[in-house]
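seq:
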Amino acid sequence: MKTVPEEKKKPAAPSPKKPDPKSEEGAKEKEYKQAEQIFGWSRWAVGYQNRAQMCRQAAEKFQSLGSYKDSPARAAECLAAAERAESEERDADFRKIMEEADHAKTPDDYLYAAEALNRMPDHPEAEAAERMCVDQYRRLRKRAGRLRVAVALLLCLVLALGAVLVRTQTLQYGLGTVCVALKRYDSAIKWYRQAPNYEDSVDRITECSYLRAAELFDEGWYATAYKTYRAIGDYRGAEAWAEESFRRMLARQKPGSVVEFGQDESGKLVKWYVLDNNGDTVTLIAEFDEARAFDSSGEQRTWADSELRLWLNTEFLSQTFLRYERDRLAQPVLHSDGGIYGLDGGADTADQVYILSAEEAQAYAEVLGAVGDNGKAKDKYSATAYGWWLRTPGAADCGAAVVNQDGSIDYYGHDQASDQTRVRPVIQVSIQP
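struct:
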């Protein structure tokens, strides 16, 4: 009997070899899977910004693989997803701004919406929406202006009719209120000052000063804004605005110009002349009509050891400048030259307030002459206050060099104990934001 031969089994197909992770192909496969994983995670990202960022990260990985597998197509897919997320984010921001514009109640509400739309040039509807908000802003401003005039006229009429029946301070307070409605803050302050004991006149004066300072700042009158904010003190962030006004005021100054800040013992603002403006700091010298000894010890002292240096960086510093003004004073390292006699100028110092050396006075001679130290000083200062100190040592025992009234440098110098020689403090102020 014939037996049926068993059917031979076909050999199994060889399983595909996994790429060796250490090989170039293995490294690409690993990068490919990472890109797929990041793209997959992007679907669960919180926020359009995060989603777009992850999609672009995945696209960069696919692009780095060149033509490996379908990397170019996957990179294009990721970029398209990123653009969709960014577009959805713009749409969401646009809807939010328009929702706020729909609920706007004041001109400023529309102005803020218009400014926000102006920062969305890529959105197709932003330009038309911005024009609409600007038109609404102008319309409400006109209406508010007409309303203020009407209210002011009505108040004037009421006050005029009732002037004979009310106390004088009531009338003056009312006139101040009318001026506030018309945004005439200087006039309002004058009226409120004539009614110092009536209701909240003092608080109203402070508020009007603050509003007037804000107007001056917006109009670019930084020097006057600084003085106004400084006088207000710590009210509604006035100190911060004073500091910014102060910084902007100094930033625009050129050598020879005059600024006022800080205050002397009488409360009067100190006048300073600009010696230099390098874009980072402004160097200033004070027009300071005080005579004071360089050092009263009777011994030869350098600037580093002098009583004058100690006084300028302690008592003068604290009494003249407010906190934010002191914070802006640089502390340069100073070298005191030995003058034409080659004397020892002493150790280098780092001071917030100092006086010029003879070398620096010579370098600034043109600016110093332009501000009135050549010949004109005799007309401006008393005869007893002759010249002003330099930190360069004088040739005589216990002496220090000075600048004479005619602007020349006296290297021989005055006796350091002289209490008739004037002091001209110098500072360097930072003008960086």
